[in-house]
Amino acid sequence: MITITHYLVLSAILFTVGVIGVLIRRNAIIIFMCIELMLNAVNLSFVACAHYLNSMQGQLFVFFTMTVAAAEAAVGLAIIVAVFRNKETVNIDDINIMKW
Amino acid sequence: MDSRKGELIRITTLLVSIVVFVLSLPLYFNFNAHAYEMQFVEKLPWIPSFGIHYHVGIDGISLFLILLTTFLMPVSILASWHITKHIKEYMIAMLVLETGMVGVFASLDLFLFYVYWELMLIPMYLLIGIWGGPRRIYAAVKFFIYTMTGSVFMLLAIIALYFLNHRATGEYTFNLLEFYRLELSFAVQFWLFLAFAFAFAIKVPMFPFHTWLPDAHVEAPTAGSVILAGVLLKMGTYGFVRFCLPLFPEASHVFIPVISWMAIVGIIYGALVSMVQDDLKKLVAYSSVSHLGFVMLGIFAFNIQGIEGGITQMINHGLSTGALFLVVGMLYERRHTRMIADFGGLTKRMPVFATLFLIITLSSIGLPGLNGFVGEFLILLGAFRSRILYASIATSGIILAAVYMLWMFQRVMFHEIIHEENKTLKDVSKREFAILIPLIMIIFWIGIYPNPFLRKMDASVNHLLKQTGEKAQTVSNLQTQNTAVIPKIDIVSETKAEW
Amino acid sequence: MLDLVALILLFPLIGTAVNGLAGKRMRKETVGYIACGAIGLSFLVSILVFCGLLLLPPEGRLFEKHLFVWIESGSFRSLAALQVDPLSTVMILTVSGVGFLIHVYSIGYMHHDKGYHRYFCYLNLFTFSMLLLVLSNNFLLMFIGWEAVGLCSYLLIGFWFEKKSASNAAKKAFVVNRVGDFGFALGVMLIFLIFHSIDFTEVFSAASHGNFETGNFAITMITLLLFMGATGKSAQIPLYTWLPDAMEGPTPVSALIHAATMVTAGVYMIARCNVLYMLSPFTMTVVASIGAATALFAASIGLVQNDIKRVLAYSTISQLGYMFLACGVGAFTAGVFHLMTHAFFKALLFLGAGSVIHALSGEQDIRKMGALKSHIPTTYKTFLVGTIAIAGIPPFAGFFSKDEILLEAFVRGNFIYWSIGAIAALFTAFYMFRLLFMTFYGESRVDHHTMEHLHESPGNMTLPLIALAGLSFVGGFLGIPGASAINHFLSPVFGGHTHAEIAGTELAGHSGHHGAWLPYLMMVVSTAIAIAGIFLAYQMYIKKPDLPKKLTDRFRFIHKLLLNKYYVDEIYDALFVNPTKKISVKILWKGVDVRIIDGSVNGIARLVGGLSNVLRLLQTGYIRNYAFYIVVGCIFIVVLAVFGK
C-alpha cells in the first residue's frame, strides 16, 4: 500500500535534489531545471495531499503552479539566452554583475 | 533647449505662481478674525478605510505662513531667471515645492501632513543637489538625511497617536482636530513630544541640530536659499505651535526650560558664529539660527505676546532673510563669489542697491519701525513676562545682531573699492528692483502698522493658549514629579493592545 | 493749535521722502530748500504748538494726539500717539530751531559734496526721529525714535563711507548704542511687567500715587536699565567711547546730532521719567556719580587733544555729564535748562569749528592753525561767544545753567559732587580757551598752500553762527535765578519735587542752614573758577608758548595717558572685542560647530558607511550564494518551527 508518506518522502527527495542542484551546479540551464524540479516536487505534495484530504483545492493549486512554471520557463530561458549572447557563457560564476 | 522655450517656461511658471498668490489673497481678506475655528475647511475622503482624509483648513496661525509662501514663490522664480540648466525640471521642482509647503501649513490630517512634509523634501533635495554649488551633493544628502531622521520619529509618533485615538474613541482617524481632544497621560505626552520636537527642532533648526543649514544654504541656488530660509524653516516652528503645544500641553510645559535654553544658546551662538563668517551666505545662514531661536523662545513663553511675536517673527524672518539671500544672490550673479573679502566699496557703484540692502539689513537687525522689531520685541516681552532671566540673556542677541550685520554691511558696501572687478559693477536691474521692492514695502508695512496682522492672530492664539492652559492645569504638580525622573512607561505597552 | 502737532513730524518726513527718492535728479539748491523748508515749517509749527500750550492753564498743559494703534497684543498696547507738554515743547523748539539753523549752515558746508541729497535726506530723517523721540507718549514709541536717531547717526557718521575710519566709527556708534538699548529695551519690558502699561501718563501717575515706596526694587531696576540706555545714547561712562570717534562725520552733523540734540536724548529721557527716578535714591546716586565722573573724566581728556572736533566732542561728553549730575541730584529743570543752553553754544562751537575747517580746506589739527582771528572774523567772534558761554562767564547762557547745576549739586547733593563739577568747570574753561587761543591767536602755523585758500565762510554759514551766538548770549536769561521762566514753565512736569527749590530766593526757606547768600556766593565762585581757567590758558598759550612743552615733558606719563584717552578703547578691545572674535572663530565655529557637532554628524554617517561596507561583503553577486542563504534561512525557520517550542 502506498501511503501519503511515500508520496511526501518522494516529494522531499525530489525537492532536496533540486535544492542541491541549484546550489552546486554552475550551468544556468541545469540550475533552471533544478528549480523546475523543486516546483514539481511541491506539485507532487499538493496532489498527494489533495487526494488524501479529498479536496480539490490542492489540484487547483497545481494548475496554478504549472502555469507559473511555464511562464517562468519562458522568461527564464529568454534571460539565459540573452545572457549567453552577451557573455558567451551560461556559467553563473562568470555572471556576477548583480553586485554594485 | 532653445532660449525661447526656456523663456516660455519661466514666464508660465511665474504666471502660475502669481495666480496662486492672487488666489491666496482672499484667504486674508475673507478671514474671520474673531473665530478661532479652522476656516476655509475642505474635507474629502482619501483612504477612508484607514480614516485618512484630504482635510485642509487654516486659522490665524497658518494664514500668514501660507501667504508668505505664496508671496515668496513668484519672488524666488523671478530670482531664478538666470537658471539655464534643466530649466523645465527646475521650475517643476519649484512648483512641487510650493504645493508641499502650502500643504504642510494647511493640512489638518496628520497623514496628509506627513505626506506633504516629505513631499517638499524631494524638490528641495533636487534643487540643492542639481542646481547647487560645488559641494552640492554633500549638502543635499546632509539636508535630506538630517530631515529624514527627524521625520521618522515624527511618523512613529503620528502612528502612535492614531492608535491611541482609536483606543480612546474607537475610531480610526488621522484628524488633528480629533487628536486635540485626546487626554494623554503625561508619560505618553513626554515621549510623543520628544518625537515631534526632534523632527521640528531639526527643521527649525535649533542648536545643536543646525549644522545642515549652513551647508544647505551655501550650496543651494538663490531661490532655493530664499525658500529654505523663508518657508522651510518655519515648518519647524509652525510644527511646534500646531502640534507639540496643543497635543502635548503638559509635556510642553515641562520642556520649557530645555527648549528655552536651546533657543537662547541658539540666539547667542548663532550670532557669534555668524559674526566671524567670511562667506556671505553662511553668515546669513547662521543669523537664521539666531533669529529662529527668538521664535522658539517666544513660542515657549506660553503667553499671547510671545506666541504672536513668534508668529510675526516667522513672517519677518521669511521676509528679511529671504531678501538677504536675494541680495547675496544678486552679488553672486555679478561677481561669482560670496566671499566678503572680495567685495568692499560697492555703495559707490551701486547706490540704489546699497539703499535696498541697508533697509533689509536693518530689518534683520530689528530696527524699530521695520518689521523685525515688532516680532522681536513681542517675543522678548512675552519671554520676559514668563521668565525674566531668559529674556534678559536673549535680549543681548540684539546687540550681537547689530554687530554681525553691520560689520558685514560695512565690509561689503563701505570703504574704497579695492578689487578691480568691482569697479564695473552695475546697479540693480529692473527685474531685481521688482524682486526687492515688494519685500521692502511689506517690511515697512509690518514695521509701522502691524496691527492688522496681529489682530488676525488673536483668536487663534488665544484659543491655543486656552488649549495648552486647560489641558495643562495639572502641570504644576506634574512638573515637580517629573522633571527629575524620566517617565518609565513606554509607548509600546501603551499601544500594544492595538497591534 | 495743539492739533497741529502731527505736522511737526510730517514735514521732515516729507523732506526725507522727497530728497531720498528724487533728490538725485533735482538741482542742489532745490534739495537744500526742501530740506531747510521742511525743518523751518516744523519749527514754525512747534512755535504754534508752544503758543497753544501757553494758552492752557499750567496744570492742564498736557495734550495727547492719538494717531493709530501701533502694536497691540493681549494686554500689551503701544499707541502711535504724540504728547505735548512743557518738557516736550522745550525739546521740539530746541531740536527744530537749532536743527533749522544747522540745515541752513549745511547748504553752504556740504555744497561741494557729491552726496548732497543723501546728506539732506539723512538729516531730515534725523530731525524726524528726534522729534518723534521727544513727542512720543509711550516708552516703545520713544524707543523707535531712540533707535532711529541712532540709525541716522550711523548713516551720517559713516557719510563718507569710503574712509575706513568713518565706517568703523559709524559701526562703533551703532553697536555701542545698541548695548545701551539692550538696557532700555529690558527697562521697557520691566515697566510693562510692573505697571501693565507703557504709557507715560499711566505709568507716571501710577508711580506718583504712592503705590510704590521709595527705594522699591523693581523701580530701581527699571531706572537703572533705562539709565543704561541713557549712558549709551548720551555717551556717559562706560559707553562714551563712540562719541569722539563719531567726529568722522561731517561737522554740521556733529553739531546737530553729537552735540545739540541726539546725545541729549538720555537726559530728556531721565527728565521725562523723573517720577520714577525720584522713587529710587540708589539710581539717583548712580546717575549723579556717573554724571560727575564723566564730566571730570572727559574734561581731563579734552585738556590735551589736538583735533578741534575731538576737543569739542570730549567737551560734549563732559557737559552731558553735568546734565546727568543735575538729574541725579534731582534738579531736572537745571538739567533740561543746561541741555537747552548747551544745544545753543555747543552747536555754535561745532559750526564755528566747521567754519574753521572749511576755511582751512579740511584741516582739523589745532597745531596747524593759529592767528586766524583776522582772516575769518565772523567765525572768530561767534566762536568767542560760544567759548565764553561754555566757560561760564556771566551773563552768557552757559553761566546760568552751569551755575545752577553746581548750586544744586551742592545743595541737594554733597560737597564731592560740587567739587568734581567745579574742577570740571575749571578744565572746561581751560581747554576751551586753549582751543580758542591755539586756533585764532598766536603765530600762524597754517601751511602755505592752505593759507592761499583761506577764506571766510559764505553767508548761509555765518548767519546761523550769528543766530546761535545770539541765542548763546540771551538763552541764559530764561533761567535767571529767582525769576526763572524755564523753571516756571517746566514745573508741571517735574512736579513739586523741584520747582520750589530751584530759584535762589526760595532756596533759603527750604534749606535753611545754607542761607540766602549761598546762590550769590556760588555765582562768584563759579565765575572765579572760569576766570582762573581762562587765565591759565592765557598764560600757557599766549604769554609763555613754551610752557606747555615743558609741562608735557615733566608729566610725560600723565600727558600720554590723557592723550591716549586713558587707553579705554584699547582696554575695551582687549576685554570684549578681541576675545569675542577669538572665541567665536576658534571655539564656537571651528570647535563646536565644525568639529563637535558636524564632526559627530559626519562621524555617524561614516560609521553607518563603514558598517555597510562590512555588510556589503555578503553581496557577492553570485546567485548561488544568495540561494544558499535562502536555503539556510529556510532550514533555520523549519528547525525553529519544529524544535523551537
From TrEMBL, chain A:
Catalytic activity: a quinone + NADH + 5 H(+)(in) = a quinol + NAD(+) + 4 H(+)(out)
GO BP terms in the entry: ATP synthesis coupled electron transport
Topology versus the membrane: Multi-pass membrane protein
EC number(s) per entry: 7.1.1.-
Record's keyword terms, sorted: Cell membrane, Membrane, NAD, Quinone, Translocase, Transmembrane, Transmembrane helix, Transport, Ubiquinone
GO cellular component assignments: NADH dehydrogenase complex; plasma membrane
Subcellular location: Cell membrane; Membrane
Transmembrane segments annotated in the record for this chain: 6-24, 31-54, 60-84
MF GO annotations: NADH dehydrogenase (quinone) (non-electrogenic) activity; quinone binding
Keyword Membrane among UniProt keywords: yes
Leading EC class: translocase
Family matches, as InterPro entries: NADH_UbQ_OxRdtase_chain4L/K, NUOK/Mnh_C1-like
PANTHER family in UniProt: NADH DEHYDROGENASE SUBUNIT 4L-RELATED, NADH-UBIQUINONE OXIDOREDUCTASE SUBUNIT ND4L
Subunit text: NDH-1 is composed of 14 different subunits. Subunits NuoA, H, J, K, L, M, N constitute the membrane sector of the complex.
Family under the similarity heading: Belongs to the complex I subunit 4L family.
Name the UniProt record assigns to this protein: NADH-quinone oxidoreductase subunit K
Native species: Candidatus Brocadia carolinensis
Lineage: Bacteria, Pseudomonadati, Planctomycetota, Candidatus Brocadiia, Candidatus Brocadiales
Gene symbol of the encoding locus: nuoK
From TrEMBL, chain C:
Keywords carried by this UniProt record: Membrane, Transmembrane, Transmembrane helix
GO BP: any one term: electron transport coupled proton transport
MF annotations from Gene Ontology: NADH dehydrogenase (ubiquinone) activity; NADH dehydrogenase activity
Principal location listed in the UniProt entry: membrane
Matching Pfam families: Proton_antipo_M (PF00361), Proton_antipo_N (PF00662)
All residue ranges annotated as the NADH-Ubiquinone oxidoreductase (complex I) chain 5 N-terminal domain in the record: 70-120
Membrane topology: Multi-pass membrane protein
Transmembrane segments: 30-55, 90-107, 119-135, 141-161, 173-195, 215-232, 253-271, 277-299, 311-337, 343-361, 382-400, 415-441, 462-486, 517-541, 626-644
Domain NADH:quinone oxidoreductase/Mrp antiporter transmembrane: 136-428
Entry keyword Membrane: yes
Protein's UniProt name: NADH-quinone oxidoreductase subunit L
